[in-house]
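Render this sequence as a predicted structure.
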Amino acid sequence: MNPTFTRVWLVLTCLVFCTIHTTWGQTATAALGGTVVSVTGSPVAGAAVTAIHLPTGLRRAAATDSAGIFSIPDALVGGPFAVQVTQPSFRTQVITNVFLSADKAVQLSIALAPDVVQVGTRRIDRTVLESAVPVDVIDMRELLATGPQTDLTQILNYSVPSFNSTRQTSADGADHVDPSSLRGLSPDQMLVLVNGKRRHTTALINLLGSRGVGNVGYDLNTVSSNAIDRIEVLRDGAAAQYGSDAIAGVMNINLRADNKGGNVLLSTGITSAGDGLSTLLSLNKGFKLGQKGFLNLTGDVDYRGATTRQYSRSLNSWPVFSSNRASEDSALAANGKTYRDFEQVNGDAKIRNYRLLYNLGAPLSNKVSFYSFGGFNYRRGRAVAPWVLPSAQPADIVDSIFPLGYQPNINTRIHDASGAAGITASLGQWKLDVSHVVGLNRMHYDVSNTLNSTLGTASPTQFDAGGLQFRQNVTNATLSRLFPQVLAGTNVAFGTEYRTENYLIFAGEEASWKDYGRGATGASGGAQGFIGFDPAAAIEGNRNNIGGFVDVEADITKKWTIGTAVRFENYSDFGSAFIYKLNTRLQLAKFLSVRAGYNTGFRAPSLQQALYRQLTLLPVNNGVVYTGIFNNQSEVTRAAGIPALQPEKSRNFSAGLILTPSPALTFTVDAYQIAIDDRIILSGLLGQGITPALDAALTQANATNAQFFTNAVNTRTQGLDLVASYRRPVGRGNFLASLAANFNRNTIRSIDVPTAFAKLQSDDDLGNNYVDQRQLSLIETGNPKSKLILNTSYEVGKFNLLVRNVRYGQVSSYDFNFDPLAEGSYYLVFKPRLTTDLQLSYKPKQALQLTAGVNNLFNVQPNTIAEAARNGNPPIGFKTQAEFDAYFQNKYGQPSYLPYDFDILPYHSHQMNFNGTFFYLKAVYNFGL
């Protein structure tokens, strides 16, 4: 299928080009020329100038020379034309209503405004290439209109190599909120801003899955992609400028600020397997407020269907009735069933989103302006837990309700809301910015298609399981001023910020968590699949912090810039922190600049990490395991002797160069090293037999094992970022190629283990390590070692053809160890993968764009868990899988079922998406063109 499909695309493309060539060749022509300069009057060389004939959509392209002059000698006669000018470090400009005649050349004079960045600097005139720190700028208007992805996390995952996000599966709440990270660090070590203001995190803390375990991140998918103008990703530590969390970098989401026009966007797609139907309908509209104000509104709704890949059942892992083949087949036949009737949904969760966002700005006087922005997102999600089956959990089967077993649904209702309001004022030469931002994220669980087996036949099949809520308020004030006569220009900024946070766990209904003791012997209390939060887990906590900063950025000369920032913050729950930053940029030649920086940073323990507690039911091959996660206030934590959480501290060094050998080619390379002390992780599963006090506390808490949040690891991250882009007119169109790559290595420098657990970390029992194998491996090798994104596109006439290749580097990690086994678990190695996307866009009119495309054209999937086990190693001490299987059979009296869930959950989701080929169609109609 794939070779035929590719040939069809190539034939159609050739026909398009031939048709366009013939059309241009048979039409009378006119001349168009002119100059392109910057707003300061300097000529802009290498700018791409495209003349678009609006009645037909046909295009002609040229590039400016060293004097900023361009010439298009054979454009169509008539019009109207739209003339588009693009150049790196400048904002794209479009001149409309241009008419051409055969007897007179039209000359245009075009001035381009600098494409300034707002993150990493407090100057208002810094462009990407002038920045002393590496910044990626993502044009969301262009990407969303044509790309296969609609979720913000997935769009960024295919655009920024240092950014990684994968949808989780069978990971409870993480199935509904995509965790994301930067430069191979944790989700909570990246700060997210919206319009330059700190955004609130999600209430969810990731406990299962393969990404961000034990961390709290941002739910980026609560923001409509169609409401965004562009995104700036600062790839450098910036806690001294922006506060806690900005260790790996900062993402700034800039919302649309148009006061006219808008669009309607419709996108739909489906996988080659026929599932995972995805649909988005979005509307954006700009309105004028007074003479200079604006109100921009966006509303959308999207749907994503569930997916399942390579489901099977092994007698050694998850049989339905019996691990004996004859008994299994007999029971299936007697009930008229096959394994297909017990299919495990093991891919994407089913999701519906409803979003509304606004962005507003209006002058109140010549010196004072008001701004406000915010939004609301409602999400309804349905994920699933593993089947409850007679083979593993006979006591949890109630014959009158689910006689053959059941697959519990873990459902969520997520409400996310935010609002910001502020003023900017000119106080002489100073600029004042004062604002207040409030954010709320509430995650409410309900469980369906399940039961509480301790209620027997009286059990309901749906339960309110309680949930989580996080609220944040931020008030800040910043004063800044550019002193143009100090050195070659010096910008000074200082300010203060006050933040309050509130975290809440609210209990579910009694039947969702209680053991009533009225079921079969051995029945498990609470709702199967997801035990509700009980009153003992319910908690509410608050904290506040206040901080202040000073930020100075000076042009020592026109070619040398030095920037520095210092910050002090004081938290009500752990104390204070003082951090600083220093960076510089030096232009060595017209085409070459170098930059370097050093900064210290910190990340305060999230309120979620400090307060979260819950009893979790983990289904395993031979039953269930109750694991309790206990916070610093818990009796279990005190009995175990776990120290109180402290902030993480970082030291970040980076150096890079910016190379522009020609106006058409730009190249940047940046190396970095990030050392983090006291990194907060989720401990291993710690059970009975460690200390008498812990044994008693676990028994009292009705938990088999316990886990704690702890400052246990000191790490070092080293990496390299490469970004190159090349554009130039080719024939009658524009050719664009870009390559971006990230190479990353994480190492654990040391592990800090409390005295009571020191022997456990070094003994031969790998099942009770204070920091377990899996957690350590996820930190070191759980992110791709490298990620490369190559885009090549050609735009001619009404058509644009793009090919994207993404290479995901190797990922490896130890498997889960739920039981936990003293032997430990398999070391899984997921080998590199290369995917290819193909898309063709067509503009029948300037206002309308249609796109058809294929994501992952050749249906490339990551290694399955079983394949990864063969690529890797059996548990430590065993040379081959066969040797371990024989040992397991001899010791435990049954065949090995490792790696865990290799049949029903064949993929781990930390390298790439495993849904395979995805076909999609998009249509965008723009108002006001």
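Summary. The longest helix spans residues 2-25. Confidence is low (pLDDT under 50) at residues 1-26.
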